[in-house]
Amino acid sequence: MDFTLNTYHSLLKALIKQGYKFQTFHKYIEKPNTKSIILRHDVDKLPENSLQFAKIQKELGIKGSYYFRVVPESFNTDIIKEIAEIEHEVGYHYETFDEAVKSFKFQKPNSKFQEKDVAEKAIVLFEKHLTDLRKYYPIKTICMHGSPLSKYDNKLLWKYYNYKDYDIIGEPYFDVDFSKVLYLTDTGRRWDGNSVSIRDRVQNSKFKVQSFRKTTDIISAAEKGELPDQIMFTFHPQRWTNSDYEWTKELVLQNAKNIIKFFLNRIR
Predict the structure, then answer these.
(1) CB atoms near residue 117 (< 10 Å)
(2) Quick check: 119 pLDDT over 60?
(3) Parallel, antiparallel, or unpaired: how do β-strands 142-144 and 182-185 relate?
(4) Residue 27 in this model has a pLDDT that exceeds 60
(5) Residues 34-47, mean pLDDT to the nearest whole number
(6) For 64-84, how does the pLDDT look when each residue is reduced to its tens digit (9 = 90+)?
(7) Residue 263's pLDDT is what?
(8) Residues of the chain with pLDDT > 90: what percent?
(9) Among 10-24, 98-112, 136-150, the range of highest mean pLDDT
């Protein structure tokens, strides 16, 4: 079975055996290792699952980066503090442009609004949420939330503002050269999910990873020494569990979401 904690543990052990150094995104931005892996985790929901990931990494002596949304299904302060206490990085998974659009639509359902007006409202929300998160961790990196059902990309905020003005040193979609760093994401509950990914994509990638459908495919490539020296993984820990019930529920729900996202990609 794929997408279990046991499979995740096996993946990490295979990467460790190949001599990779694991860096938080913060440390990678400051000084990347020659042979480096960034473990990025988007805590969209079920933050308890992310804590399980963090504990597994702690046992193996490695560190990761955890990006929390400021919404009830993600923003669990006890878990944020516990993940920070075991020396992982905490970041902000921002979605304020989409939040601002929803606010405009709620206030004036049939009105038209300008992108710049949305950005002005979105940056106020960004500042507030960043301040809230920094009560628990000195946030230095951020990462956009895809908001797949929205037609607006949350990265639009940086068309009008600069996140570095907020003492942020990195955002993966802007600050990683993906012509040199292999990007692997479990979007769609698969590793070759471009057709069902709305925004979790990178530019300028030269790597061919179509064969990586399952986690075991990545493990096999690692064991054969076929992976490049620098890799960023994006995990959505709510998808990973050893519970048969939760595993099956996530499989059914994600397959339904994939159908919707496939058709959204066709019409956009």
Answers:
(1) 11
(2) yes
(3) unpaired
(4) yes
(5) 97
(6) 999 999 999 999 999 999 999
(7) 45
(8) 72
(9) 10-24
Name the burial class of residue 209, with classes exposed (0-12), middle (13-18) and buried (19+) by CB atoms within 10 angstroms of its CB: middle
Percent with pLDDT over 70 in the chain: 84
The 10 Å CB-count burial string (b at 16+, else e) for 27-51 is bbbeebeeebbbbbbbbbbbbebbb
What distance in Å separates the CA atoms of residue 19 and residue 14, rounded to the nearest whole number? 9
Q: For the chain, give the secondary structure using H, E and C.
A: CCCCHHHHHHHHHHHHHCCCEEECHHHHHHCCCCCEEEEEEEECCCHHHHHHHHHHHHHHCCCCEEEECCCCCCCCHHHHHHHHHCCCEEEEEECHHHHHHHHHHHHCCCCCCCHHHHHHHHHHHHHHHHHHHCCCCCCCEEEECCCCCCCCCHHHHHHCCCHHHHCCCECHHHHCCCCCCEEEECCCCCCCCHHHCCCCCCCCCCCCCCCCCCHHHHHHHHHCCCCCCEEEEEECHHHCCCCHHHHHHHHHHHHHHHHHHHHHHHHC
Are the CB atoms for 200 and 178 separated by under 8 Å?
no
Q: For each of the domains in the chain, give its residue range(s) and CATH number, in order of start.
A: 5-267 (3.20.20)
For helices 47-60 and 5-17, the axis angle rounded to 10 degrees is 30
- The gap between the terminal CA atoms of the chain, to the nearest Å, is 34
